[in-house]
Design a protein that fits this description.
heterodimer; A: 121 residues; mainly alpha; Arc Repressor Mutant, subunit A; 2 domains; two-stranded antiparallel ribbon; 61% helix; elongated; B: 298 residues; alpha/beta; Rossmann fold; Alpha-Beta Plaits; 6-stranded mixed β-sheet; 4-stranded antiparallel β-sheet; 11 helices; 16 strands; 30% strand
Chain lengths: 121, 298
């Protein structure tokens, strides 16, 4: 995990997102132990309760699971789960706002399509 | 064993001036609290009363249900590391750092000398120096060493980062979290440097003009504010019915801070073209305790 926090979202969400990034990048592999809340707290100078909130979020989503007395682990299938979740989020945060902005600018459907194709090249 | 420290309906007067008005506060075990308030808000007075180092005119302070005043058992669990000063009542503070720490080691029953020595080394403190010869930052380091090495179940630090440079401040928060993750003891930390400490505080206590303005989970508190900006009509429509804490205007643009969660504002916006942004702890603090707030309550 790397990077700094931004002010736009809660720290616990950023902690969860950083762990997800590490799973996507293969920094953390499935069935591998993830840093504990105390390790995260120390590494990022945040309250352990905040770190725990981020980890619990991923536990609820089935991305991490708890092994009693040992720690938190990456669940089997976590990688695909994160991809699916991020695709939904991609639609919500990028595509809908892209369409809204295109409408505000008076772009036609065809012009927008052409722009997307140009960006893909 | 750690217990709850509780202040109920505290009133404190200095002469005719009342500096704490009916303050009630519960310090729960195992939480890092941040105490923030403007200069003269009563922070140090409150902290010294909580630890029976100052008298009060009404109300009670209890620890595990027992009054703290002249209660040796309770006081053994409480550490209040005051800001140091080069001047004391009768002239210069000519105590050497090692004498100050030695006195602390006799006062606090759980004193951890090895830890104190380790911290002194980490900060590069010269224990043979007189306190009046220390820089402001070095004085802060001494108060940090005292607080942490006291190993008191409830440890209170008054402005521990005052005068520390940014490297030393970051180091302090690391040391604090190292200790906290190991011991889980309770900390109450007053500070003026809010933003960088915001992530360390599980709960925040806001003291304003001698009154408690908020005691809340830091994240929940911050999330209860939003900043809405856009064309005046739109902003007014979106924020209607919510308490406006602060207003900024530039041309036709208007921005207001409201005590409402982002999701609430997003629902209220419903298609109107406004920007809704979060507010930092520092901003939330300014909105609650700044000049405008004073006028409104005046």
């Amino acid at each position: 995990m790397t990077g700094n926090f931004n002010d736009a979202t809660s720290i616990y969400l950023q902690i969860a997102a950083m762990l997800e990034d590490d799973i996507l990048r293969g920094v953390l592999l499935e069935q591998e132990r993830v840093p504990s809340t105390n390790e995260l707290a120390r590494a990022y100078s945040i309250n352990p309760a905040t770190a725990a909130k981020g980890i619990n979020l991923l536990v609820e989503e089935g991305i991490l699971y708890k092994k009693r007395g040992i720690g938190m682990f990456v669940a089997q299938g976590a990688h695909d789960k994160i991809i699916a979740k991020r695709k939904d989020a991609f639609y919500e945060t990028y595509v809908t706002s892209l369409v809204r902005e295109a409408r505000a600018l008076g772009l036609t459907k065809e012009e927008l399509k052409a722009m997307i194709e140009r960006a893909q090249q | 064993m750690e217990q709850t420290l509780q202040a109920s309906h505290l009133v404190k007067r200095y002469g005719k001036k009342e500096v704490l008005h009916d303050v009630s506060l519960t310090i729960e075990p195992g939480v890092i609290y941040g105490l923030i308030g403007r200069n003269g808000a009563g922070k140090t007075t409150l902290l010294s009363i909580l630890t029976a180092q100052n008298t009060h005119d009404a109300g009670t302070v209890t620890y595990g249900g027992q009054p703290v005043w002249e209660n040796e058992k309770a006081l053994a669990d409480l550490c209040f590391s005051r800001e140091l000063s080069g001047q004391i009542l009768f002239g210069q503070n000519t105590y050497k750092v090692k004498d100050y720490l030695l006195a602390a080691s006799m006062y606090y029953p759980r004193w951890d000398k090895a830890y104190a020595d380790q911290l002194v080394q980490r900060f590069g403190l010269d224990v043979k120096k007189k306190i009046c010869k220390l820089s402001k930052g070095m004085m802060s380091m001494v108060t940090i060493v005292l607080a942490l090495a006291s190993r008191a179940p409830i440890t209170i630090l008054d402005e521990p980062v005052a005068g520390l440079d940014v490297v030393a401040r970051e180091d302090f928060y690391k040391i604090l979290l190292d200790d906290y993750t190991e011991t889980g003891r309770t900390f109450v930390i007053s500070t003026h440097i809010i933003e960088e400490a915001a992530n360390v505080f599980e709960k925040v206590i806001i003291l304003n003009n001698g009154q408690i303005a908020a005691v809340e989970n830091t994240e929940d508190f911050v999330a209860s504010f939003s900043f809405v900006s856009g064309r005046e009509e739109d902003v007014d429509a979106v924020t209607a019915g919510h308490e406006v804490l602060h207003t900024e205007r530039m041309g036709r643009q208007k921005g207001v801070a409201v005590r409402a969660a982002r999701a609430v504002m997003e629902r209220a916006a419903a298609g109107r073209d406004v920007d809704i942004s979060p507010v930092s702890l520092q901003k939330a603090f300014v909105y609650l305790t700044g000049e405008e707030a004073h006028h409104e309550t005046a």
